[in-house]
């Protein structure tokens, strides 16, 4: 009996100290994902992206970054075979905000079910998920919803200006509708979901602390949401409206700051540590 107890205790100790098996993570997304490996494109504002922050907590995770600035679900679906994605244990899809702005039709659940192709959000996600399952039928697939956003002004091109998600896109569709479609797909396919839109705490109100705009008398004033909505900004003459002091969850109204990337990482770690 004593010998059996010793053997069991030895097995427990060996298991406790056994090296954690490496987890391969394929991160697919847009510029938010891209920035993790291209911090220079944020002019030094971002010091570490969400993927590196996940690895800080889960060092046995090894990731590959497949973030493409400006890309939509349709773009990923149509180019999937040319992206040279390696087989992984976990795939995350972090898309939606560009789909909203360019007005990619959302489609319906029928487009997903009937595999109608990548001309809609539902159809594009079907293509992507099918492609992933062809690579690894046992892989965990995690869908991330887009973040709420306020007025975006690109720090690298101040003429690139997009209004926040407090307004619908040019087709009259709210960003929340794209979020709901992604949630529906996750539910229908029994996929994991990281709901950044509704559950991260990042909102259009706190994306930035304020927007600094020039008044008629040429002086500047800090306006908090929603007081800055529709106030003019002249990219050729005015100072960039989001100085360092205005940074909150995002640094430019759209792209997460260090604080924002940490929130994304925390939500992913909570999920991925189960794997």
Automatic annotation (TrEMBL):
Residues 1-18 form the signal peptide. One of its GO terms (molecular function) is hydrolase activity. Residues 27-262 form the SGNH hydrolase-type esterase domain. Keywords: Hydrolase, Signal. InterPro entries: Ester_Hydrolysis_Enzymes, SGNH_hydro, SGNH_hydro_sf. Pfam families: Lipase_GDSL_2. PANTHER family: SGNH HYDROLASE-TYPE ESTERASE DOMAIN-CONTAINING PROTEIN, THIOESTERASE 1/PROTEASE 1/LYSOPHOSPHOLIPASE L1. This is SGNH/GDSL hydrolase family protein. It comes from Mucilaginibacter antarcticus.
């Amino acid at each position: 009996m004593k010998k059996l107890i010793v053997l069991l205790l030895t097995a427990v100790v060996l298991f406790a100290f056994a090296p954690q098996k490496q987890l391969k993570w394929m991160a697919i997304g847009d510029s938010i994902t891209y920035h993790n490996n291209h911090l220079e494109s944020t002019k030094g504002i971002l010091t570490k992206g969400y993927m590196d922050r996940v690895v800080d907590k889960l060092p046995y995770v090894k990731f590959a970054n497949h973030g493409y600035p400006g890309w939509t679900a349709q773009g990923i679906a149509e180019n999937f075979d040319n992206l040279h994605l390696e087989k992984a244990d976990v795939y995350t899809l972090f898309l939606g905000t560009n789909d909203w702005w360019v007005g990619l039709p959302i489609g319906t659940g029928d487009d997903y079910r009937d595999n109608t192709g990548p001309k809609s959000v539902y159809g594009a996600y079907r293509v992507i998920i099918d492609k992933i399952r062809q690579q690894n039928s046992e892989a965990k697939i995690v869908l991330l919803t887009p973040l709420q956003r306020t007025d975006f002004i690109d720090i690298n091109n101040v003429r690139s200006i997009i209004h926040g998600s407090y307004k619908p896109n040019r087709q009259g569709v709210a960003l929340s509708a794209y979020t709901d479609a992604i949630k529906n797909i996750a539910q229908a396919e029994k996929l994991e979901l990281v709901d950044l839109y509704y559950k991260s705490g990042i909102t259009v109100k706190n994306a930035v602390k304020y927007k600094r705009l020039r008044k008629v008398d040429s002086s500047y004033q800090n306006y908090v949401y929603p007081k800055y909505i529709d106030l003019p900004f002249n990219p050729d003459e005015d100072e960039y409206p989001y100085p360092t002091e205005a940074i909150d969850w995002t640094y430019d109204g759209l792209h997460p700051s260090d604080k924002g990337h940490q929130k994304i990482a925390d939500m992913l770690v909570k999920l991925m540590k189960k794997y």
